[in-house]
Amino acid sequence: MQPTLKSTVKCTDREVGEITRIIVDPLSLEVSHIVVGDGTGGQERQVPMSEVQQIVGHVVHLRIPSSEMGRFPVLNRDEYVTTHEVEIAHLEERLHVEPGEVLVPIPDLERNIKRRTFFTNLTHAIGILLGLPLIYPVMKYLMKPMYLPYDNRWIKVGNVNRIKVEDTGVQFKFRKKVKEAFMPEVEILKNVWLLKATPEVLDEVYKGKDMQFRDSQGSLIWTNNRAFPYVAYSGKCPHLGCGYKWRKVRKLPREIFLCPCHISIYDVSGKVLDGPAPRPLDPVPIRVSDNGDVEIIDVEFKAGVRDRIRIL
Amino acid sequence: MEPDRLVQSQPTVLERVVAFVDERVGLKTLQAKMLNEPVPGGSRWAYIFGSCLLFIFVLQAVTGVLLMFYYVPSVDHAYASTQYIIHEVDYGWFILSYHFWGSSVMVVMVFAHMSQVFLWGAYKSPRELVWLVGLVLFGIVMAFGFTGYLLPWDQRSYWATIVGVEIIDKTPLIGDFMARFLKGGPTAGQMTLNRFFLIHVMVLPAALMALAGLHIFLFRKAGPAGPFHGGVEELKAKTDYFFPRQVWKDIVAVSVVFVSICGLAFIEPVVLLEEATPDPGDYHPEPEWYFLFMFQLLRLKIFGGELGQFLGSVAIPGAFMLLLAALPFIDRSPERNIFKRPIALVSWVVVVLGIVLFTVSAVINREFLD
Ligand code: FES
Predict the structure, then answer these.
(1) Does B186 contact A148 at a Cβ distance shorter than 8 Å?
(2) Nearest ligand 1 atom, CA A275
(3) Which of A46, A238, B91, B325 has the smallest number of Cβ neighbours within 10 A?
């Protein structure tokens, strides 16, 4: 029979209090001591189970007279944890003492609180010491392909004899060779829009200034002359990077560049007529040989910002 | 009679195996704890969404693993391997279409789940953390949709990704870094596909499993909120356990979800467009339907220009999510009855109408483009 919490405790001569807690042995899973107190928070003494003569319901009889109670040690609560704070397998099935605090002694070696705090801090410190130096190499590892030098190759895209009418967008598709990291070189399909512009349109495009293109170090790689009649626009919409078309829409009198994504509309000079685009279409470096072959540099700018920030 | 009774009193082999395992694992207690969850005010059809989401996720994981038997995440094989799944592999079209439609239904269910919690006022104290973790899970589900969309590497997926990443790029300070990080370079290519694939099949599933576990743990810790009206006595009288009545309702709902996804996969199986390339040809880029309203929002003139774009693509969605996160801390009145919370009810209606309106206008806008 196990003693239950709150049971009355009687010595041979008189009642000495009640069971305030119960202490279990974590190995045998047996009740080892009862803790006897007056129930008002005064001194509590640990009485070994061997002193218990018999248990009758909620009354526990000890084999000693009350005068001998003083030889049992006073409970030091700090030396114990409750069964809720420690995982002891199968303890629950064996004990029938609830409700109340069931205590298990903390092992002697664990009673030095200072050392525990020290070890907690040490663990964190070691973790940080091991982890911090890893951040840099791991970030570098992940960032390897993120910032590549600009591609300043001239790419042949076709011949100007395809352009029959002035101030009209003509799409030139081209295949660009790309070699990415470990991949074999592949050709990807891209496009630019070409224009044979009248002086008025050229004026709109270049605003009277030659347009310069620079590489990542800032040195000049090419200048589009403001009087040069052929203009090539990057195929990437300056809004959020979709592809746009030269076409007629119902409401407008003449053809325009229309991006189907968020319906940005640009006139032939690349100026935004309607829609959310933050800047005009982007001219790219262009040169035309004597026999009319067109070459461009496939420059790309960051979409969605007012300024032209080169990314490719 | 004697031997007969003897046989009866002897446990069968199966019972002995169960007892053996149970003694060591504590399965029965675990099972009892899982199923004997008191549902205050009794089971309801309104509580089915969480289980549906769990179910959908499990099947997305299963179909996802099946797809990886053939799929190759490289720009020169992604498209071909997906086409191979659709056209050559037995039932490949079905597995792929199920996975595709499963994601759509998941988004619908997330929305329903969040609406239910919102309308029932179940995000309020002491369930703030359940709600917060739920919001992160919402983000993860959307991220699943976004990253998975690229994997077939056709024009549709390519352009949705291009625009999506450009939107992320608009985040102040870290936008450029995040966009390049996702793309693995200045433009989209093999590195992008690699990263999206990895995020889709490793990072997000791990995050979702961990957080869904935490979500359920916190939910069980706080206990279900129950209905928003009725006195203590009435609630007590109607309370039952999760099993069997709620489980039954959940199973019915899960079956409907399963059949619906299968139906969608049959009626509208996935068909790929041309292989991805930076030249869109005649394709008019559009994101998946659940991002359409955002897409349409960005068409508005006020969200044009540099500042407008920041507002439309980062500031407003960000502020909205922050508001949702702050909700249980702002809205501290214990009142849960939605009919006594006019601001909450009106906001919910406005948000839903807004999403519907913008989605519909995006669809109508298609006509203008032809
Ligand atoms: S990407 Fe061209 S309008 Fe948005």
Answers:
(1) yes
(2) 3
(3) B91
